[in-house]
Write a structure and sequence with these properties.
The protein is of the alpha+beta class. It folds into three domains: 241 residues, BirA Bifunctional Protein, domain 2 (2-Layer Sandwich); 107 residues, no CATH class; 117 residues, Anticodon-binding domain (Rossmann fold). It is built from 18 helices and 23 strands. The strands form seven sheets. A seven-stranded mixed sheet has the order 3-9-10-16-13-12-11. A five-stranded mixed sheet has the order 20-19-21-22-23, with helices on both faces. The protein has a three-stranded antiparallel sheet with strand order 5-4-6. A hairpin with a 5-residue loop joins strand 17 and strand 18. Helix 2 crosses helix 13, helix 5 packs antiparallel against helix 7 and helix 7 packs antiparallel against helix 8. The two termini are 34 Å apart.
């Protein structure tokens, strides 16, 4: 566990040092759970967006994209259920004056019990050595069984109180477990109350004329309210999809784990409109398609798993998460949901406008069902950083930090380096950049020894480094170095474009 936490710290530190991610407003000591993407981070982020957008729209004739406004009519959020039901249970400690999510306090308590189980297992392993049978040990050891029963009882009580919205019972659970404030160590808690996660503001500059509106907590509703606009203007036939990339805002009580959970974040969502009764076929189709999209990046199949929801949201009849093995463990990366006709039906009722589709094939008017794919862009970014960051010991005893970012997503595709700053080598290097820069993001690098420059490019994930030396001026050849293998090859300048393109083209990912 400690090793994983250390890896997250290393990634955060590396991301700041090399210009991937900065704490927001850092000169004013930052703002909790808000981050800025630096010069390399914004390039990587844009490349992830491009990969998603092309895979969704360019590769599918029946999916188009929109860009809806962040501000929406407040009734939008009444219809979607966010005004009444978008809440987290909140509790304050009277002594430390710190605010917590009540369910997170209980989950952290459960995690401590889980760690006791792991300690028992480790002791058993030490005692029995090669003869140790972990499954049998967990099924028979009295300490393990007692702790498993404790966890089950706590989870059942928490689930029951949340489902019934019984906040008194939730507070009683916290009291019974004797949970103390991590800061003050005190058990002096307020009552548990519901906290709406939407940021509210006012539209209009004159008090009295202004009305309360919200920063959108998700991007999906911008798609639903534009369903008919897109369908009619694009002459779309069901099944069809609408894709969108955009910012969303949630006033998280406890936002943590770097860019995994932020108050301002970006989503890449696609709502796929289908005939009622055909939603499960398309749900399975999109589960498979989205898994393929992730695996094409080559971040390691073992880093992904599916988690099908047992308890479904009020609007869904099926839901599954693609989880990724982050430094904090397996967490949700993307959700695939069968949302039924809930959203369009709600908007039709509250707006009084018909949101139906006439299907000429079956001669019927109906509200379509929706299958949603929704991936957090910031989480996607963190998954790439986590899987790409490696500290390697080399055969000569030296070490390097390398970011094995999928080449198509790398901020810079190639670095061009003159061996020295004289004899016409810088001019030749810039000449090479001038032929490559129309298709690839290039970096010119002439500072420090060539070895240090290679290390620097490894650390920012540049797939190729090209060195211009005195021989280049004689025969038009350069040395090209591969980031991952560190192998170097002498090639003619004329074939550089083809070599780089073969490795970094998005086509490779899109056809995988």
């Amino acid at each position: 566990m400690e090793k994983k936490e250390d890896k997250l710290k290393d990634i955060i530190s590396h991301a700041k040092e090399y210009g991937f991610v900065f704490p927001s407003s850092e000169i004013y000591d930052g703002l909790a759970a808000i981050y800025d993407y630096g010069q390399l981070g914004s390039e990587l982020k844009n490349n992830i967006k491009t990969y998603w957008w092309k895979a969704m729209t360019q590769m599918h004739e029946n999916i188009v994209g929109i860009d809806a406004a962040i501000f929406m009519h407040p009734d939008t959020w009444k219809a979607s259920g966010h005004v009444d039901a978008f809440n987290d249970p909140l509790i304050d400690n009277k002594d430390s004056k710190k605010r917590y999510r009540a369910d997170v306090l209980v989950e952290d308590h459960i995690e401590k019990i889980r760690q006791k189980i792991e300690k028992e297992v480790a002791k058993g392993q030490k005692r029995f050595g090669d003869d140790f049978d972990e499954v049998q040990f967990k099924a028979t050891n009295p300490n393990v069984l007692r702790n498993v029963a404790k966890i089950e009882e706590i989870e059942n009580r928490m689930r029951e109180s949340l489902e019934k919205e019984d906040l008194v019972a939730f507070k009683q659970l916290i009291d019974d477990l004797e949970i103390a404030c991590p800061v003050s160590g005190s058990k002096n808690w307020t009552e548990v109350r519901q906290f709406n996660l939407m940021f509210a503001t006012e539209l209009g500059s004159v008090a009295g004329d202004s009305s309360k509106i919200y920063l959108r907590p998700e991007t999906a509703q911008g798609i639903f309210v534009n369903f008919l606009n897109v369908q009619k203007t694009g002459r779309m036939k069901i099944p069809f999809g609408i894709a969108q990339i955009g910012k969303a805002f949630r006033n998280e009580i406890v936002a943590r784990q770097f860019i995994f959970r932020m108050r301002e974040f970006e989503q890449m969502e696609m709502q796929f409109f289908v005939r009622p009764g055909e939603e499960m076929k398309w749900y399975e189709y999109w589960k498979e398609q989205r898994t393929k999209w992730h695996l094409a990046l080559g971040l390691g199949e073992k880093n992904y798993r599916h988690h099908d929801h047992i308890k479904l949201a009020h609007y869904a009849n099926a839901a599954s998460d693609i989880e990724f093995n982050f430094p904090m463990g397996f967490k949700e990366l993307e959700g695939i949901h069968s949302r039924t006709d809930f959203d369009l039906k709600q908007h039709e009722e509250l707006s009084g406008k018909k949101l139906r589709y006439f299907d000429p094939e079956i001669n019927e008017n109906y509200i379509p069902y929706v299958v949603e794919t929704s991936v957090g862009l910031d989480r996607m970014f963190l998954s790439v950083l986590s899987a790409s960051y490696h500290e390697e010991k080399l055969s000569d005893g030296s070490e390097r930090v390398v970011m094995n970012i999928p080449p198509a997503l790398a901020p810079y595709k190639v670095a061009v380096m003159p061996l020295t700053k004289k004899d016409g080598l810088p001019e030749k290097a810039r000449e090479i950049i001038d032929t490559l820069k129309f298709d690839f993001n290039c970096q010119y690098d002439e500072k420090d020894s060539i070895g240090k420059r290679y290390r620097r490019q490894d650390a920012i994930g540049t797939p190729y480094s090209v060195t211009v030396d005195h021989q280049t001026l004689e025969d038009n050849t350069v040395t090209i170095r591969d980031r991952d293998t560190m192998e170097q090859e002498r090639v003619n300048i004329d074939v550089l474009h083809r070599i780089i393109d073969e490795k970094v083209s998005l086509r490779k990912l899109l056809t995988a």
